[in-house]
Amino acid sequence: xSRLRSALSVQGNPKRKRGTKAERRASLAYVSGYLxxxxxxxxxxxxxxxxxxxxxxxxxxxxxxxxxVMFQRGSGGGNGEDKLPDIVLGPxxxxxxxxxxxxxxxxxxxxxxxxxxxxxxxIDGKGPDFIVFENPFLAAPGDDPNxxxxxxxxxxxxxxxxxxxxxPYDTGSRKGCAGHRPVLANSKENKIDPTDPKKAGGDPFDLxxxxxxxxxxxxxxxxxxxxxxxxxxxxxxxxxAACHSRKRVGxxx
Length: 253
Fold this sequence. Notes:
Elements: H1 2-12, H2 21-56, E1 67-72, E2 105-106, E3 112-116, E4 120-123, E5 130-133, E6 137-138, E7 148-149, E8 152-158, E9 165-166, E10 203-205, E11 214-215, E12 217-224, E13 236-237, E14 239-242, E15 245-247
Antiparallel strand pairs: 1-3, 2-13, 3-12, 4-11, 4-15, 5-10, 5-14, 6-7, 8-9, 8-12
Helix pairs in contact: 1-2
């Protein structure tokens, strides 16, 4: 620091002995180097502070399932298994009424998958509380909801992952089944809200139907599907989204 003061005083006081040309150059070089070092330290501290603040800021819970607890592949299934868990987490990527999305995991005949909401929990609200997205499609022109390709699944829910309640279903009428309403919401292609059961497509479920107020686990099991090649048999899961949810305040696993 004394060397810095000396260098600055020589530059700012014309009456003081200036020294040789080489000494003046050395002094200037030292001042420049010192100031650069100080600037670098300040910049590093600022950046570090910003990174720390970003890392410490809690992430806002999303309305989608967060974790795959279990996947039991059924006969002829497994397509998309190499992309687990991401392929069934996050928003749906529907292909509309007349086309089947390829962004799915094929459960296989009688295959099953269990998903968990980790940072939030699904609660009973007005109307449907969550939506299961598969990839069914209708025959052109798509004006008859009963004429198309459907692979159905039953849906069970639980709060603790141990005690399960099954939604009543009928494969003949498809009532209570997942896998018969085309998916319209696609996070990469449109702005349709995937939590809006009137616009998103997919199959909605109301916790009131099974007498529950809150759940965190959803289990989906293939109940009616056709065989297929290349591991594409069975119910094809795209995503699960909560229509009504709240941030989980209890202990997380």
